[in-house]
Amino acid sequence: MIDLHTHTTCSDGTDTPRELINKALSQGISVLAITDHDTTSGWSEARQALRGNLELVLGAEISCLTDDGISVHMLGLLFDENNAPMQLLLEQTRDGRIPRMRKMIELMQGEGIAISMEDVEAVKPAGATLGRPHLADALVKNGVISSRDEAFSELLHNESRFYVSHAAPTPADAIKAIRSAGGVAVIAHAFASHRGKILVSDDFQELCEAGLNGIEVDHRDHSPAERDMLRAIAIEKNLVITGSSDYHGMGKLNSLCENWTSPEQWLRLESESDQRRVVKV
After folding, report:
1. Across the chain, what does the average pLDDT equal?
2. What is the spatial distance between Cα 273 and Cα 136, in angstroms, rounded to a whole number?
3. What average pLDDT score do residues 58-71 get?
4. CA–CA gap between residue 235 and residue 173 (Å, rounded)
5. How far apart are CA 213 and CA 163, in angstroms?
């Protein structure tokens, strides 16, 4: 089984990189990608924890915004972690999350919701990339809402009055940075319409011209019809088709490898990086 989209405590997951490696091993996963939001900080621990026959794919999920404000997430896999422009892009995207969080909290406080930046910092693991899931956890801890899922469906979705965008690269710029760093770019949950505004089919031409390698088709947040549309786009554009869990530990319902990528598609995707960077024991 091959899962190319997971998260740890280095962003908004609840398992450390070591714990995630252990779970993958116990479940018989053959290839696992760690793709924390806008950071590579979990890579070292994941490498150290690796053993057995598990193959480790190191990456990041990059937060992007289109020119007309649509939120897009781009998975960058197998890129050179020492590529300075890539690390600068990730750092700038992380930095943009702090003023965004302060503004969201300010909007909530304006409506009498009991929440503060200190509350969010208290539930965020040390060193983790700040994100809405941490705000959700703080709201749960303060008794404002009962779960992360409820927080996102009621208060934190992209169309919410509390939603605030942040400084981020365009999807095309993120793809170009990933490819320049030797990696491969896969757009994540592109048609997850319940999250808010989404791309349309015509948008993929620009992404392909920027160097897009694949589309995450099989994902919990895609309906059967959305999967069919994305699969058709991938076939038409000759892109790799992936499936992934978007696992967050206890932070979401998603289970490891509840969706997966076929070995044939994975071999093709790996071959499109500039060198072999899959980590093996």
Report:
1. 94
2. 36
3. 93
4. 23
5. 30
Q: Which residues contact 106 (CB under 8 A, 6 or more apart)?
A: none
CB–CB of 272/180 below 8 Å? no
Range from 4-13, 28-37, 40-49, 95-104 carrying the lowest mean pLDDT: 95-104
| Domain range 2-95+167-271, CATH architecture | Alpha-Beta Barrel (3.20)
- In eight-state DSSP terms, residue 189 is S
Is a pLDDT exceeding 90 seen at residue 68? no
CATH class of 98-156: mainly alpha
**How far is residue 280 from each of residues 57, 190, 276, measured CA to CA in Å?**
9, 30, 11
Strands, sheet with 2-3, edge to edge from the N-terminal-most edge strand: 2-3, 31-37, 55-65, 71-77, 184-188, 214-218, 240-243
Supply the pLDDT for residue 139: 97
CB-based contacts of 234, cutoff 8 Å, min separation 6: 214, 215, 217, 240, 241
Over the stretch 29-51, which tens digit does the pLDDT of each residue have? 999 999 999 999 999 999 999 99
